[in-house]
Amino acid sequence: GQQLNQSPQSMFIQEGEDVSMNCTSSSIFNTWLWYKQEPGEGPVLLIALYKAGELTSNGRLTAQFGITRKDSFLNISASIPSDVGIYFCAGEYNFNKFYFGSGTKLNVKP
Amino acid sequence: NAGVMQNPRHLVRRRGQEARLRCSPMKGHSHVYWYRQLPEEGLKFMVYLQKENIIDESGMPKERFSAEFPKEGPSILRIQQVVRGDSAAYFCASSPLGQAMNTEAFFGQGTRLTVV
């Protein structure tokens, strides 16, 4: 299957700091999705990106679809304790088949 | 509009028993995906189904695992003769009509299978 490399694996930050994480692949994707998963729950969709170069915001979250269609980043500004969780990127490849990165575990210290 | 519904949330099976995991997609969604997640790991693709068709099962183990999405009723992921290594969280996701751009996948809350 297609490989998505997501980094960093984990982050420990102070409340109020900004966060950045990214996904890269050797394959071209049609869609990039970013999810957040909290313990014991399913992933929840945060942002969807459909066009190369697209920059989309959802509150304090901003994500971009890379120009090459092979990468995407997610930024969280002014982090708060409830941002804690695992963030996954997902790329849609070959019509409706989704591949996931291995996740970035975010810890926020109050 | 209810989200993706999975049941049961938790399932305990003894080694050698069968596990049946159910997933009802969001209303209007005709595509279902199953993913497996081990603790502290990412989501691994297992199978992609449309109504009455398996589109891609490249992530499914060759033996003991099967999936279906009948014309009526939920999608079922079936694991026969479970072993301890099958213990994991199994997530279902659904998306609307295929062959369309701008599609998204929405997840259920998962079924946590424990094999004892």
Major beta sheet summary of chain A: 6 strands, mixed
How many beta strands in the DSSP annotation of chain B?
Answer: 11
- Give the low-pLDDT segments of chain B: none
Q: Structural class of the secondary elements of chain A?
A: mainly beta
Total number of helical segments of chain A?
0
| Number of H- or I-type helical stretches of chain B | 0
Beginning-to-end CA distance, first to last residue of chain A: 39 Å
Helix content of chain B: under 10%
Question: Based on helices, strands and strand pairing, what is the structural class of chain B?
Answer: mainly beta
From the alpha carbons, calculate the radius of gyration of chain B and give it in angstroms.
14 Å
- Helix and strand pattern of chain B: EEEEEEEEEEE
The CA-CA distance between the termini of chain B, in Å, is: 37 Å
Could you describe the 3D structure shown?
The complex is a heterodimer of chains A (110) and B (116). With 110 residues, chain A is mainly β. Chain A contains no helices and eleven strands. In chain A, the strands form two sheets. In chain A, strands 2, 4, 5, 9, 10 and 11 form a six-stranded mixed beta sheet that branches. Chain A has a five-stranded antiparallel beta sheet with strand order 1-3-8-7-6, with no helix packed on it. The model of chain A has no long low-confidence stretch (mean pLDDT 92). Chain B is an all-beta fold and 116 residues long. In chain B, 0% of the residues lie in helices and 48% in strands. Chain B has strands at residues 5-7, 10-13, 19-24, 31-37, 43-50, 53-56, 65-68, 75-79, 88-95, 106-107, 111-115. In chain B, the strands form two sheets. In chain B, strands 2, 4, 5, 6, 9, 10 and 11 form a seven-stranded mixed beta sheet that branches. In chain B, strands 1-3-8-7 form a four-stranded antiparallel beta sheet, with no helix packed on it. The model of chain B has no long low-confidence stretch (mean pLDDT 91). Chain A binds chain B through residues 1, 6, 30-31, 33, 35, 41-45, 48, 50, 88, 90, 92, 95-103, and chain B through 4, 6, 31, 33, 35, 41-45, 48, 55-56, 58-59, 91, 93, 95, 98-99, 101-110.
